[in-house]
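LAB NOTEBOOK - FOLDING QUEUE
OPERATOR: T.R.
BATCH SIZE: 2
PURPOSE: Compare the predicted structure-token outputs for two unrelated chains run back to back under identical settings.
PRIORITY: normal
REVIEWER: second-year student, initials M.K.

ITEM 1
FIELD SEQUENCE / FIELD STRUCTURE:
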Amino acid sequence: MSDMTNNMAVRNPRTGANDYEITITTAEEIETLALAARAAQVNWLAKGLDHRISVMKELASVMAANRDELIAALSIDTGRYAIAAQEVDAIGRNIDKWAHVARHTEEQAEQNSMAIPSIAFRSQRKPYALLGVISPWNFPLLLSLIDALPALIAGCAVIIKPSEVTPRFAEPMRKVIDQVPGLKDLLIYIDGDGSSGAALIDHVDMVCFTGSVRTGRKVGEAAARNFIPACLELGGNDPALVLADADVDRASSALVRGSVAATGQACQSIERIYVAQSLYDEFVEKLVEKAKSVQLNTPDIHTGHIGPIIFEKQADILKDQLDDAVTKGAVIHCGGEIERHEGGLWLKPTVITNVNHGMKLMSQETFGPIMPVMAFEDDQQAIDYANDTEFGLSGAVFSENKNHAVEVGSQIEAGGISINDACMTAFISEAEKNSFKLSGIGASRMGPEGYTRFFRKQAIITNTADAFDVSMLDEAHSKP
């Protein structure tokens, strides 16, 4: 909650205490920062790709030198250590990846028109001068930079508004940026709430948002009013299909991990599991056994498998979905209770059966370590179940026959389909994909398009013959 001094208290997910404070960046301050960023971007672009890549590699180097401080802040933000370290360590690899993509993504070469051979044409790229990024609380550092890194290499300046739920990491990031010559006015972190995010959209040329459908609609509407492009990565309710010819042991292992990794607080988490009737009992037994082996990382943040529920309001959503399911006849086999440890909120991996699509658990995004399991009679019913949702982010299919799995997976209305594993979009980013339905809109943040989306295309068209003059308008030219 904000007070009259424009400050906002921030909750610690492990202790439940408000032990940090941010000052909300005002619209006037954002306007000043945007003007400075635009001025710096002109020189940033003029210095060329090699210079930009060298500066970004220096950023990676300085982040590595300040690794401990970044991890410490992220650990408090999210209540988890191992994933915080993974977020920090991933940035250098991501910079190398985008540098490679940029160097191997060529502009259109000049060629002659097939319709009029005397006309030559080519396209060249013009980066958006200023990108606005509004990032979420579940992977605060990684998702603040997932769009910013390729945009900076493309020649954009970037202003980032991270979630007010997990803002602590931004201060050590600002210190890092200050140590990289020439980057201070090009990569800017601002603290703030929803009002700061709304103001940011009014001062940028493109916006990238990761978060809920509800907020994503507001971002998209604001971008449309300003006639700027928006890339929206929104919610998911991702299905997994365990077909009749699947390896049950493999599927159950992958789906426990895919459902509870990061406490289920990942957009690509598996949130609905559909199993062939012939495998159902065996699968549920193995799933429960493996789910019970997952340990909370309390009281020691350096042990166990999963951390606390980061956002307090998310715990209310999880409890509401579980209560709704049980009231309607669902059966909980393990987990199922929001627990309080050290003042934080926790949920052990929860396997739940006797579910149906009339339950909130099956129709809404869950964002927690909950595994509802339903049986299906045949492949078509499984596909119908998977597609009975307003979301379409990703999904998974398990079968001993890869071709069979791909055939079924291709009929799921979602952007990324993992075959014989789960959540593969968290591991690789080379494959372009788009979100379906309410899970988002805009160009892919994966593959080459994750870089080229930050450019407008400009056509250069040259007439190598005589110029067309007014005589071409003569009616005689149009006679057969």
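ITEM 2
FIELD SEQUENCE / FIELD STRUCTURE:
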Amino acid sequence: MRSRLPAFGAAAGVFVLDQITKLAIRGSMSEMDVRPVIPGFFDIVHAENAGAAFSFFAHSPAQWRNLVLVGIAAAALVFIAVLLWRAGGRVAQSAVLRSGLALIMGGAFGNLYDRIIHGTVTDFLDVYIRTYHWPAFNVADSAITIGAVLVLWDTLRASRAAEVK
């Protein structure tokens, strides 16, 4: 039980930080406002994303899009929660894997909450070089990405360790 608490606590922390930052953006900026931070590289923006990552499905019918995206996110959350809850096995042994799953879980819950409550996901971090923009993202997206890298890293590390044996 003790080894589960830090992972679920980290997921909750990501969710809270994500919601605080989105609330601050929605409360202080009109949609499509831009505030330059590092000219030519980084701005704070207020974008509402109706779609998934990179605005996939943004122009799909709203009922279908929201049902599919909420369903996928909810299924992913249940899957990750089950992995983190399991007391034995590799998940309990690998802090890197637990951390990665916790980040993914917290981020997925943050974006799922937005989609259910607001019908869109608030994005506000805009990284670009001249006219080449990365799609705007948020704390939840960052946590999901970092978590996925940690899970991949742990998986590669474990497979290399198995090859050595």
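REVIEWER COMMENT (ITEM 2): The beta strands are 34-38, 42-49, 121-129, 132-133.
FOLLOW-UP: none requested
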